[in-house]
Design a protein that fits this description.
The structure holds three protein chains of three kinds. Chain A contains 19 helices and 22 strands. Chain A is an alpha/beta fold. Chain A has four domains: 172 residues, Dimethylsulfoxide Reductase, domain 2 (3-Layer(aba) Sandwich), CATH 3.40.228.10; 129 residues, Rossmann fold (3-Layer(aba) Sandwich), CATH 3.40.50.740; 59 residues, no CATH class; 121 residues, Barwin-like endoglucanases (Beta Barrel), CATH 2.40.40.20. In chain B, strands 2-1-5-3-4 form a five-stranded mixed beta sheet. In chain B, strands 10-11-12 form a three-stranded antiparallel beta sheet. Chain B has a two-stranded antiparallel sheet with strand order 6-9. Chain C is an alpha/beta fold. Chain C folds into five domains: 54 residues, no CATH class; 59 residues, Glutaredoxin, CATH 3.40.30; 211 residues, Rossmann fold, CATH 3.40.50; 84 residues, Roll (Ubiquitin-like (UB roll)); 94 residues, de novo design (two linked rop proteins) (Up-down Bundle). Chain C is globular, with a radius of gyration of 23 Å. Classes of the chains: A alpha/beta, B alpha+beta, C alpha/beta. Chains in contact: A-B, B-C. Strand 11 of chain A pairs antiparallel with strand 13 of chain B, so a sheet runs across the interface.
């Protein structure tokens, strides 16, 4: 997020796109609700009529995967109505003129043709956002989990840049991170392209720095992304360490994924439960869990916070860092003589420019939002205040592209996936917490009531849902939360492995999977049958 | 602009525009009692325990709601005020079944009992009808106990649900002594707009709304300890206090001073914690045996096999045959050591995390 | 509205100012009650959370959630009606589904029964009939009047009759002068003060609103006359509605307001019709709407009916109710002059106050001020009821002797009886008895006797009445009407009611020892007076205070009867 969570109650116009925030980031959503109570206006763009849409002033129910078209249409309105922040454009950005010329042809009527959102509503959204004093954009995986995820994000950046809604309180481009420490994993260098603190591995200065720090030569090439690595399992990739991820259930195209992991010569999994993924491993290590582990995590606003152990771990479970360090030592690697999480974290701080002003003790109260470049620096809640990291904010000329799959005779229905309030990911945790079953005990496919009737389904009955990659059985739930022709399910229940169906494509730059769109065929069924990967 | 001051109990106190008397008094030694006050919510002025005397004002005023004005002279604990407060606490005690409730009931659950002690108010005066009708039996949700016999109609639950959580699930039916905290059409919580975030439980000062999950551990021996940590679910990073008795994790309470959440939580952070001490947890390393099955193994054995497998792959297929996926769920130290293992150990950049899924 | 579907009702009201109450009434009138379906539709249309809406609806006594709803009779069992058989009438009508209601403001002609949209009055089922409000009796003392000066004139309730007897002359002259400030100056000079009971100087209030920069501003006429024993505003609105409207327009002109609301108590359905007719007439005549009389003033008046809640006569509650919120009192400051309707500057004045304004503007501030006796300014309408020969509304100069009013103007107690006690300020001033009945009718004299003049309701109790029983019914009223927001009032009114109940009542509780009983009652009273959030809780203990002051022996007997 470019802005801190506390800014969420401060905008006068809020644009939420591809984020089911009240269910997936409920506490963050409370900030938006506070802003609304103070009179802020809310624009919600989502294919589904999510709870947030009920609070919105303008609802943009776009067809899945048509975000770019919608955002171009809004940009067109803002440009046409003279709502561009010319001063900001001149002082802080480049490529503005080309961008304004570019959007001239993308009228709301054009955008309606692709997204299905009425032109008048695109117009209203454009005017509202364009006239905002403090306009803030929030998004989640509904933006990024597309083959055009990068295009989507850049379209949002264009919108923020053209209206000058960045670098100020109550504005910004704010992706909501989905996992407690997914930001931290990146901060710590668990990325194929960056060392700790987002220092590119291809920069010779960084290479020299880390060669010295680690006392070992470093790889000069970019690493593979996870997606590529899974494709290369059994070929180039032969041994894999997976820490705390139920890859098999949460990744797209489950059939492909299972095949990949089984093709490895050596798979080591560290987890707290014997997940479906761990069950494929050669070695499984028991890790300590929440409440048993001292450590550090970074939240979606870049706040660095301490985790503390309250109870002893079960049996012989150990902290991840200890397990990995022990493995490293057994491999004969040096530099893994850590005795505590504190030792590890302080090494991170010593090597990360964004954490240079932090150490274990200083973050005890969670008071710092990185970057904290030196001792005594107060932290940086709002990014891009005076300048962008690369100097000027660059407009990108984006064109609309269809999703990897579009509905056709064989697969005439859009399927989109996500999470639900009461469950989390593959339910390894929420599924083992008492009481959650009271509210959510099974997965079901959300289908518009008219589609339920048209497709010969029954509310509460079974159906068979088939994509180009597989087929699963799932119960039907009639709800107007789904628009006509689009259905929704979460991937939380292992008996309804929705990710057997997904995986139609990947963003060419980030290799993020298009989990939010695939096309399916839905047929009534009398009894459930096992999932099949084809 | 010159600094503005009010005088509280003879002490000059600077204040900021818009601050209330109660907020300003919080920076002095004054201990103004409250029951309907939650610093995260708009002032309500219901319990009237926080009334103070202002020079020139006929009646005492509610300090939670009255804004500071330059030169105000405030007295927070005159004999008359303390007498009113004692009477009020006695009156409040008279409408409930009991004053003392288990501290596992909720974050603020001891507030009435603490005041009853402070004002020596367990006097059995003002006997009469009790207020509130409990929904203990008919609402069988596993999270929130609705023991309204204990309710004192402070509206903190109503207000926290609206102002802090934005769910507007909790409502108040009727008026006067018949005021009843409820939800739309008097239904059960799971038939209402309730999301089971537990905020109403956290703010309830009497245990009328209580943490049903934590209360399972009333008889677990040992004192309640609190440990501050961060919720393990989404990326918001809510601060929580884990409640433990001995080695048992017995509950979660929101951290009111949590920098990211300021006391807010959702159902997952509040109630989905007992996976931690679930019987399915892995307790030993597992090794795949010749029979193709996973078997418990010692750390020594398992670490050796794990290390050997990576070294073998490297030796046979080169350093770029090794890959690691770091967790977006585990702490920094896990991700950092993972990438260090790969980069410094195997001389490759083949490491990623699970953000692309 | 009958026959209209949900969408039509919503379409009609949703963009109107203060739409919640009229929209709820539209559904309530159509169906006789507020169904779950109706509440869901209203919640969605006005974007009010369903739980909030449900809570708000259940706050009001007269909103029924289930059939038979408004078609079931509601019988007044207020303090005066109980004297003449209200409880018995209720019992007689139970078979028709009758339920009790608090004082419905017909104490001059008891007993009112409200069914659907009609109020009938009569002491027995057979005697019940719909009747218009009685006019004030002919000026008994021949003293100059202000608000009653022209009320008895033929046709005064219609715009023609009103104008014929000098109506709208004040407005015309004020508008043509072009100086809103002059209106305020005249009102200030008149020393007119709030006649709803609070007594705040009207001119000062208007000046404060006029000085506020934010807008749009509103003028709210408080016509929620819920105080037991008060029925003066009803008579003013029923027989001189244009005077209230003219007062509101003058107020709007003085402060620069564009919206006017009359918040009318539910129990006056006929009055709603009369007011709306008068507003329509005035609009037709160009006295309401845009550019009134070419003077540049844009002002409209909307009638908004309450739904049965005494607390909505408290201005904070009234404003919350208008806004569709839970009708709790608001913390003050800030006051409505700066943060009133929709948090914008607002004049809130009582009906009598507003009706006083046209004559004041017409005849001058000095004229009005000099109507009072001695140092007192102006007049006050007293609603007199109970054990008295000639109940009704009397406009007296402020400072007028109470005995003269009771005995000379109103004929004294019924034949063979003497006056034992009166209530003051409806019931909010508690009782006066004995020598204290010698008071003059002005705030300082009445307050010196531990009571207050307030809205000017005086109920008379003769020597046959059991004052503990009267006190109990008064406290029961306060407990019933306590909003439940503040602890001292919510618990205190309940505990005092329990302590005033007869020993064998189901609702009785409290010590049987006289000293303990008195300590509890006094402690509760002290804390209520000192710490309650609004006037209800501060006033209620005057009942027990005055009871113990005048009738210590009867109280002792009462406590002793429960000792066993």
């Amino acid at each position: 997020m470019s802005n801190p969570l506390e800014d969420m109650s401060k905008p006068d116009v809020i644009f939420c796109i591809g984020t089911n925030m009240t269910e997936c980031h409920p506490v963050a959503a409370t900030g938006i609700k506070k802003a609304l109570a103070k009179g802020a206006k809310l624009i919600v763009a989502d294919p589904r009529h999510i709870p947030l849409a009920k609070l919105a002033d303008v609802v943009l129910p776009l067809r899945v995967g048509s975000d770019v078209a919608l955002l171009l249409g809004m940009a067109h309105v803002i440009a046409r109505e003279g709502l561009v922040d010319e001063e900001f454009l001149a002082a802080r950005t480049s490529g503005g003129d080309e961008f304004l010329a570019h959007v001239a042809k993308f009228t709301p009527e054009w955008a309606e043709g692709i997204s299905g959102v009425p032109a008048a509503d695109i117009e209203a959204a454009g005017l509202l956002f364009g006239r905002a004093e403090r306009g803030a954009i929030y998004y989640t995986l509904g933006i990024t989990e597309h083959i055009c995820g990068v295009d989507n994000v850049q379209s949002l950046c264009n919108l923020a840049l053209m209206t000058g809604n960045i670098g100020r309180e109550g504005t910004g481009i704010n992706p909501m991170r989905g996992q407690n420490n997914i930001q931290g994993a990146g901060d710590c260098g668990a990325l194929p392209n960056n060392y700790v603190g987002f220092q590119p591995v291809t920069d010779p200065a960084n290479q020299a720095k880390f060669a010295e720090a680690y006392g070992h030569e470093v790889d000069l090439e970019l690493g593979m992304t996870k997606v590529t690595a899974l494709e290369q399992c059994g070929d180039q990739i032969r041994a894999m360490l997976i820490d705390g991820e139920n890859t098999l259930v949460t990744d797209p195209d489950q059939g492909h994924c299972e095949h990949a992991l089984k093709s490895l010569d050596h798979l080591v999994v560290i987890d707290i439960f014997l997940t479906d993924t761990a069950a494929l491993a050669d070695v499984v290590f028991p890790a300590t869990a929440y409440g048993e582990t001292d450590g550090v995590c970074t939240n979606t606003e870049r706040r660095v916070q301490r985790l503390r152990a309250a109870v002893p771990p079960p049996g012989e479970a150990r902290p991840d860092w200890w397990i990995i360090s022990q493995m490293a030592k057994r491999c004969g690697f040096s530099g893994f003589e850590f005795e505590s999480a504190k030792d590890v974290f302080n090494e991170i701080c010593s090597l990360s420019p964004t954490y240079a002003g932090l150490n274990w003790d200083r973050i005890a109260d969670g008071a710092y939002i990185w970057p904290v470049p030196y001792d005594g620096h107060p932290g940086t809640p709002i990014l891009h205040q005076d300048e962008f990291i690369n100097g000027r904010g660059l407009f990108k000329l984006i064109e609309y592209r269809d999703p990897a799959e579009v509905v056709c005779d064989e697969f005439p229905v859009w399927l989109t996936t996500g999470r639900r309030l009461q469950s989390y990911h593959s339910r390894t945790q929420t599924g083992r917490s008492s009481g959650i079953d009271y509210l959510l005990w099974e997965e079901s496919l959300e289908v518009h009531p008219d589609d339920v009737a048209d497709w010969g389904l029954t509310d509460g009955g079974w159906c068979r849902m088939t994509s180009a990659r597989g087929s699963i059985s799932i119960k039907v739930k009639a709800t107007r939360q789904s628009p006509r022709g689009t259905v929704f399910a979460s991937f939380s229940f292992s008996d309804v492995p929705v990710n057997v169906l997904t995986g139609s494509g990947y963003d060419p730059i980030t290799q993020t999977a298009e989990l939010k769109v695939c096309t399916v065929r839905i047929e009534p069924a009398s009894v459930p049958e096992p999932a099949i990967s084809t | 602009m010159s600094e503005r001051h009010i005088e509280i109990d003879g002490q000059s106190v600077p204040y900021e525009e818009g601050e209330t008397l109660l907020e300003a008094a919080g920076r002095t030694d004054a201990e103004i009692p409250t029951l309907c006050y939650d610093p995260r919510l708009e002032p309500f002025g219901g319990c009237r325990l926080c009334v103070v005397e202002i020079e020139g004002s006929h009646n005492p005023v509610a300090s939670c709601a009255r804004k500071c004005e330059d030169g105000m002279v405030v007295r927070t604990a005159t004999d008359a005020l303390e007498q009113h407060r004692k009477t009020l606490v006695e009156m409040v005690c008279s409408e409930n079944r009991q004053v003392d409730v288990d501290p596992l009931s909720g974050f603020a659950s001891q507030e009435l009992a603490v005041l009853a002690d402070r004002y020596d108010a367990r006097t059995q005066r003002f006997v009469g009808r009790r207020s509130g009708q409990s929904r203990v039996d008919d609402d069988d949700n596993p999270f929130i106990l609705r023991d309204y016999d204990q309710c004192i109609s402070c509206y903190r639950c109503v207000r926290v649900c609206a102002e802090q959580e934005g769910d507007y699930a909790i409502s108040v039916k009727g008026r006067g002594f018949d005021t009843q905290i409820t939800v739309e059409f008097d239904g059960k919580l799971n038939e209402s707009a309730c999301t089971f975030c537990g905020q109403c439980v956290a703010t309830c000062p009497t245990g009328a709304l209580a943490d049903r999950k934590a209360l399972r551990h009333v008889d677990t021996p040992g004192p309640i300890e609190k440990t501050r940590t961060i919720c393990p679910y989404c990326g918001v990073g809510c601060s929580v206090d884990l409640l433990t008795k001995g080695d048992s994790l017995v509950g979660v309470q929101p951290a009111m001073d949590g920098p990211a959440n300021k006391g807010a939580l959702c159902i997952k952070g509040q109630y989905a914690y007992d996976f931690v001490q679930h019987g399915d947890r892995l307790t030993t390393p597992l090794l795949r045996g010749d029979d193709g099955e996973l078997h418990p193994a010692s750390w020594d054995e398992a670490l050796d096999v794990a290390a050997a497998g990576f070294l073998k792959a490297r030796d046979e297929h080169g350093r770029h045959s090794i890959y690691a996926i770091a967790s977006g769920r585990a702490p920094h130290e896990a991700a950092y050591t993972t990438q260090r293992f790969i980069r410094a150990g195997f001389w490759t950049n083949h490491v990623d995390n699970c953000s692309r899924a | 509205m009958a026959g209209q579907n949900n969408e039509q009702l919503i379409e009609h009201w949703k963009d109107e100012p203060a739409p919640l109450l009229p929209l709820l009434h539209a559904f309530h009138d159509r169906d006789g009650h507020l169904s779950e379906d109706a509440l869901r539709a209203v919640s969605a249309a006005l974007r009010i959370p369903l739980a909030d809406l449900y809570g708000t609806v259940t706050f009001y006594h007269h909103f029924a959630r289930f059939p038979p709803g408004m078609s079931a009779p509601r019988v007044c069992t207020g303090p005066v009606c109980r004297l003449v058989g209200g409880t018995e009438l209720l019992e007689a009508m139970r078979k028709d589904g009758a339920t009790p209601m608090a004082c419905a403001g017909r104490c001059d002609e008891p007993i009112p029964v409200l069914t659907d949209h009609a109020v009938s009055v009569g002491a027995t089922v057979e005697a019940l009939q719909e009747r218009p409000s009685p006019l004030p009796v002919a000026n008994p003392g021949g003293l100059p009047e202000c608000v009653f000066r022209s009320i008895r004139k033929e046709g005064r309730a219609g715009i023609a009759g009103y104008q014929k007897s000098g109506g709208y002359r004040a407005l015309r002259s004020a508008l043509s002068s072009g100086f809103p400030a002059a209106v305020i100056e005249t009102v200030e000079r008149s020393e007119l003060a709030g006649r709803g009971g609070a007594g705040f100087p009207t001119g000062r209030k208007w000046r404060a609103v006029a000085n506020e920069e934010r807008g749009p501003k509103s003028v709210v006429c408080n016509a929620d006359e819920g105080e037991p024993g008060c029925f003066k505003d009803r008579v003013l609105m029923d027989h001189d509605p244009h005077a209230v409207i003219e007062g509101m327009i003058l107020a709007a002109y003085a402060v620069g307001a564009s919206r006017g609301f009359i918040y009318l108590r539910y129990e006056y359905p006929q009055t709603a019709v009369i007011l709306q007719r008068a507003i329509d007439e005035a609009t037709e005549a160009g006295l309401l709407g845009d550019d009134i009389l070419g003077g540049g003033l844009d002002f409209r008046i909307y009638v908004r009916r309450g739904a049965g809640a005494y607390i909505c006569g408290e201005e904070g509650s009234l404003l919350n109710s208008l806004e569709g919120k839970h009708p709790f009192p608001r913390e003050r400051p800030p006051y409505p002059v700066s943060h009133g309707f929709e948090d914008l500057p607002t004049v809130v004045n009582n009906v009598e106050t507003l009706a006083s304004v046209p004559p004041i503007i017409d005849r001058g501030g000095d004229w009005y001020r000099k109507l009072g006796l001695g140092d007192h300014a102006g007049t006050k309408v007293i609603s007199l009821s109970g054990d008295i020969q000639r109940p009704g509304n009397y406009e007296v100069p402020i400072g007028f002797p109470l005995p003269t009013l009771l005995n000379e103007w109103a004929g004294g107690a019924p034949e063979g009886r003497t006056i034992q006690a009166v209530t003051m300020a409806g019931i909010s001033g508690g009782f006066l008895a004995g020598d204290d009945l010698e008071t003059t009718l002005d705030e300082s004299s009445v307050r010196a006797r531990g009571s207050m003049l307030g809205a000017g309701g005086i109920m008379v109790f003769d020597d046959s009445r059991d004052m503990v029983d009267v006190a109990h019914s008064c406290m029961e009223f306060f407990a019933h009407e306590s909003c439940g927001k503040c602890f001292p009032c919510r618990i205190g009114t309940q505990r005092l009611t329990e302590r005033l109940a007869e020993a064998d009542d189901v609702g009785a509780a409290g010590p049987g020892d006289r000293a303990d009983w008195a300590r509890e009652v006094e402690d509760i009273g002290e804390v209520m007076k000192a710490t309650s959030a609004c006037g209800l809780g501060m006033a209620a203990p005057l009942i027990t205070e005055s009871l113990m002051r005048y009738w210590p022996d009867r109280v002792a007997e009462h406590v002793a009867s429960r000792a066993s």
